[in-house]
Amino acid sequence: MSEGLKAVETSVSAWRMALGNRAIDSHLVFHSDQGIQYACTEFQNQFKDLPVTQSMSRKGNCWDNVVAESFFKSFKSELVNQTRFKTRAAARLATFEYIEGWYNRQRKHST
């Protein structure tokens, strides 16, 4: 499987998991970069019949994604680069615990 197809499969799977964990109560803006995993028809079809507007950053404009870039910098430095995961399941669990248990609930945010 190519890297592009893996990225699409992963992003669709993550979107579906997010929908299963949290209902969309009102209109939602989904912002991303212009990566193939977000620009492809398979991913965009996930928004059909949902109150979701897809927003993409402008090509080559890093300021559009500053919040996401900040998250990934923190995620990598606080968890990923310090941990050797034995299995994918362990990595998934640690990621979930980092985001839901620490990053969203306890960590101070500037934005």
How are helices and strands ordered from N to C? HEHHEHH
Q: State the helix count.
A: 5
Domain module tally? 2
Rg measurement, Å: 15 Å
**Helix- and strand-based class?**
mainly alpha
The biggest sheet, with number of strands, parallel, antiparallel or mixed sense and barrel status, is: 2 strands, parallel
- Indicate the multimeric state: single chain
User: What is the CA–CA distance across the termini?
Assistant: 37 Å
Strand order of the largest sheet: 1-2
The helix fraction, in percent, is: 40-55%
Shape, principal axes of CA atoms: globular
The count of DSSP E runs of length 2 or more, i.e. the number of strands, is: 2
What is the residue-mean pLDDT, rounded to a whole number?
Answer: 86
Low-confidence sequence ranges: none
| Portion in strands | 5-15%
Keywords for this entry:
mainly alpha, single chain, two-stranded parallel ribbon, 111 residues, 50% helix
Describe the structure in your own words.
The protein is built from five helices and two strands, in the order H-E-H-H-E-H-H. The longest helix is centred in the first third of the chain and has 19 residues, at 3-21. Helices cover 50% and strands 9% of the residues. It is mostly helical.
